[in-house]
């Protein structure tokens, strides 16, 4: 059973293989969205591009491959950014929610999250 480590929230969440990353976060009560996304997210269709996550750790194939929607919508974003609504969890990973507005201490938070063993 994979574990998703949410850096900003300081939480490790177990999920099923193949579970949608957006749904994993939302069912745990985690906030994926900034103000724009709170006011007008598309409900997981990949159209509003407000459910960004930055994949900071885990295996190369921890998530399903980029979808066509992501290829189109994320062309000018960092390579480690994904749309959580388009991702299926395959193995344990570490993500930063809302990377477009990182916390001031994000580098330290990322290092601390990566420094702890990730359950597989």
From TrEMBL:
InterPro entries: 2Fe-2S_ferredoxin-like_sf, 2Fe-2S_ferredoxin-type, Adrenodoxin-like, Beta-grasp_dom_sf. Gene3D superfamilies: 3.10.20.30. The keyword Lyase does not apply. Transmembrane segments: none annotated. Its cofactor is [2Fe-2S] cluster. Keywords: 2Fe-2S, Iron, Iron-sulfur, Metal-binding. GO terms for molecular function: 2 iron, 2 sulfur cluster binding; electron transfer activity; metal ion binding. SUPFAM superfamilies: 2Fe-2S ferredoxin-like (SSF54292). GO terms for biological process: P450-containing electron transport chain. Residues 2-101 form the 2Fe-2S ferredoxin-type domain. The keyword Ribonucleoprotein does not apply. Belongs to the adrenodoxin/putidaredoxin family. This is Possible ferredoxin. The gene is fdx.
């Amino acid at each position: 059973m994979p574990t998703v480590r949410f850096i900003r929230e300081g939480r490790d969440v177990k999920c099923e293989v193949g579970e949608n990353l957006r749904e994993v976060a939302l069912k745990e009560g985690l906030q994926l969205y900034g103000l724009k996304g709170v006011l007008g997210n598309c409900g997981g269709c990949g159209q509003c591009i407000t459910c960004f996550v930055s994949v900071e750790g885990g295996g190369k194939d921890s998530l399903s491959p980029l979808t066509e929607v992501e290829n189109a919508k994320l062309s000018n974003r960092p390579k480690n950014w994904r749309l959580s609504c388009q991702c299926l969890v395959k193995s344990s990973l570490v993500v930063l929610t809302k990377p477009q507005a990182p916390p001031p201490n994000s580098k330290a938070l990322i290092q601390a999250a990566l420094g702890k063993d990730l359950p597989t």
